[in-house]
Amino acid sequence: MISVNIAPNRVHMLAMLPLRARGLLSGLALLLLCAPAVRGDVIVLDDGRRIEGIIQIQNAKIVRIKTRYGELEFPRADVVTIEKGKTSDQEYAERAAVAKTAEDFYELGLWAKQKKLTSKAKKSMRRVLKLDPMHVGANQFLGRVLYKGDWMTPEERDLRMREDHAAEMLEKGLVRYRERWVTPLEKEKLEAGLVLFARQREAAGRRVVVDLAIHQPFLCCCFWIFFQVSRRVTVRLKTRAPGAESGSTQK
Question: Topology of domain 89-169, per CATH?
Fold first, then answer.
């Protein structure tokens, strides 16, 4: 028989659930309680299950063990063996007490990550950066990035990149206009409402050509043929002109 400590206000809620739902919840709870997330004392039951946690009560009648998800109580007759050990939290505390160097805390952080102690792993990596701010592994573990020789968060990197870009544009003599960089003359014209610049006309022309090629391919082909023919006629006229002039001179 297994006894699980449940708060009184939860008992009424469980009783209102359908029988099948209660069975599923009970099975899920048992799986979570039996999960090997906590290394510590281990109870081996007569059906082969292993329950890990910290033993609270052990006598001739019952064995009560506290897991990360709650307490379980078993009849002593159902318990085959009891293995004494340390929890991951206890082992972390012991390892942290002897760690001294940045590399010691880095190895401790990797060990904590392996044991699913996420908060303690981050705590160890932050301790690494206090001892060695340029430690590559700890910076990468905490999601930091390297920019121009300095480690920082991605948000700090993006801010630095924007500031550096602004400084570069100012060195080139450009000024800020809304969301882009322009020359002082362009800014004056833009503020005055004059937007007919050569760059804009060229961009508009390219867009017209692209739209024409996509939506009116036949017409675009005709224009291309007309352009090629005109160019060849112009070239021939230029090459024949000197000969005609020389012939008229000889006469």
Answer: 1.25.40
